[in-house]
Design brief:
single chain, 278 residues, alpha/beta, binds S-adenosylmethionine
Length: 278
């Protein structure tokens, strides 16, 4: 695989601990994200026989759903462990209409044969988003379209702002992340998303907010364990001392107590569902 030097950090990240954790938590994450999957699929309105490029396909959930809807799907991702899981799942489901490519989607040259560019949370990690979308647009046939889901701003996403806010005072400071730096919230600013897509040659750009509860665990203890083992909280706690970890864990428990009475434990999630035409 060739690699754009500027995406090297993301390639290392998704091939390291993060990729392994996504593979391990895949069933839970797909269940948690199911309402968003349904929403972005509705926006994509894929038709049987269409060719779809699933950008940052990860462990393959959306590629498999698209293939089951009759599309011929290419999943592209930089994460070897996640792609391996995607291939294994497609084989287990006896899905032939799925190919996996290990490549950086921002620079891989695709033939202009796709009807649809699709992504569930796989397009916010490009170091140069303008160049990435200009490249991806070239994969579309004339009249092709795009549909993806991305996160709105962190404070609208309780599932991340509540746990992160609770532990932040107790763990070592994190390197600052700018709002446009590659990461889950890089597309929170809709004006930026519109600018990137327009610069890449897309039109009919539309985005609507979609809110859905993020089910973090069946029980309070299950949710607490998952949050500490996965995502930003686990990364923030990793360099902490034992004493700091204990304080952070207590603060997290306290912050989540208001959500403990309902089963499963769910905190708010806030996304943009974005569509455009080539
Ligand atoms: C948040 S995960 C989402 C995975 C999957 N779409 C899902 O919803 O389960 C982001 C995915 O984007 C992939 N990714 C990040 N940068 C990429 C790039 N430059 N090219 C291709 N995939 C990339 C990661 O490896 C990871 O699988």
């Amino acid at each position: 695989m060739t690699q754009t030097p500027s995406n090297a950090d993301q390639i290392a990240f998704w091939n390291g601990d993060a990729g392994e954790k996504w593979v391990k938590a895949q069933d839970r994450l797909d269940a948690m994200l199911a309402p968003i999957t349904a929403e972005v699929l509705k926006a994509a309105s894929v038709k049987p026989g269409e060719r779809v490029l699933d950008v940052g396909c990860g462990c393959g959930e959306t590629s498999i759903v698209l293939a089951k809807a009759g599309a011929r799907v290419t999943g592209v991702d930089i994460s070897r462990p996640m792609l391996a899981r995607a291939k294994q799942r497609a084989a287990e489901s006896r899905i032939d209409a799925f190919d996996a490519i290990e490549a950086d989607a921002s620079e891989r040259k695709f033939d202009a044969t796709y009807d649809l560019l699709f992504s569930r949370f796989g397009v916010m990690f490009f170091a140069d988003a303008d160049a990435a979308f200009a490249n991806l647009r070239k994969a579309l046939k004339p009249g092709g379209r795009l549909a993806f889901a991305c996160w709105r701003e962190p404070r609208a996403n309780e599932w991340v702002s509540v746990p992160v806010g609770a532990i932040r005072p107790h763990v070592p400071p994190q390197p600052p992340l700018g709002p446009e730096d590659p990461g889950p919230f890089a597309f929170a600013d809709l004006a930026r998303v519109r600018r990137i897509l327009a610069n890449a040659g897309f039109d009919s750009i539309a985005a609507r907010p979609f809110d859905s509860p993020m089910q973090l665990g069946e029980t309070f203890e299950d949710a607490l364990a998952h949050i500490q083992d996965f995502g930003p909280v686990s990364r923030m706690m990793a360099p902490a001392s034992d004493a700091e970890k204990a304080k952070a864990a207590a603060a997290l428990r306290h912050a989540l107590e208001p959500y403990a009475s309902k089963k499963p434990i769910a905190l708010g999630g806030a996304t943009w569902i974005v569509t455009a035409k080539a």
